[in-house]
């Protein structure tokens, strides 16, 4: 006589497979509030936004508009996810809009405490917004935006555009 057919073709016992599936099902029911918050104290909608978590870290060391060590260089660098921190504080005068890519955290609170923080200001020649969010999962904290003196009419009416 041939051996009786096995009820389960996997190398696990039926009870073990059932318990594994049960655990996975129960884990899928956990509320999102158990996920890691975007930053300490984050609550409400978007409080679990990952931003640039686990990505490249770029350090801003210059308040210039462009060049090595600038905010623009950090935002334009090749990276899937990024966190931008500041070794300097003061005003960054931009001559063209800064585009924030997806999966980015800009941590303005990392500027030196005695520096007065980070202010993004439009140069007189800039007629568009100073900064534009161009993707999902973006966290911008502790930045100030100033329009700056401009004789050109504004196209967008704001210093920060979230598209």
TrEMBL record:
Highest taxon of the lineage: Eukaryota
Signal peptide: 1-35
GO terms assigned for molecular function: metal ion binding
Keywords in alphabetical order: Glycoprotein, Metal-binding, Signal
Gene3D superfamilies, sorted: Single-stranded right-handed beta-helix, Pectin lyase-like
InterPro entries on file: Pectin_lyas_fold, Pectin_lyase_fold/virulence, Polysaccharide_Lyase_1
PANTHER family membership: PECTATE LYASE C-RELATED
Name the record gives this protein: Uncharacterized protein
Organism: Sexangularia sp. CB-2014
Upper taxonomic lineage: Eukaryota, Amoebozoa, Tubulinea, Elardia, Arcellinida
């Amino acid at each position: 006589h041939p051996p009786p057919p096995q009820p389960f073709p996997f190398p696990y016992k039926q009870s073990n497979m059932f318990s594994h599936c049960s655990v996975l099902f129960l884990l899928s029911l956990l509320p999102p509030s158990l996920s890691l918050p975007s930053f300490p104290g984050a609550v409400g909608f978007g409080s679990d936004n990952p931003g640039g978590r686990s990505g490249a870290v770029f350090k801003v060391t210059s308040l210039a508009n462009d060049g090595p060590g600038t905010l623009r260089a950090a935002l334009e660098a090749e990276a899937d996810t990024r966190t931008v921190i500041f070794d300097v504080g003061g005003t960054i005068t931009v001559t063209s809009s800064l585009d924030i890519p997806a999966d980015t955290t800009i941590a303005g609170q990392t500027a030196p405490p005695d520096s007065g923080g980070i202010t993004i200001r439009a140069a007189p020649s800039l007629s568009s917004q100073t900064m534009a969010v161009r993707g999902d999962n973006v966290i911008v904290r502790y930045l100030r935006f100033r329009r700056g003196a401009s004789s050109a009419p504004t196209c967008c009416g704001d210093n920060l555009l979230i598209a």
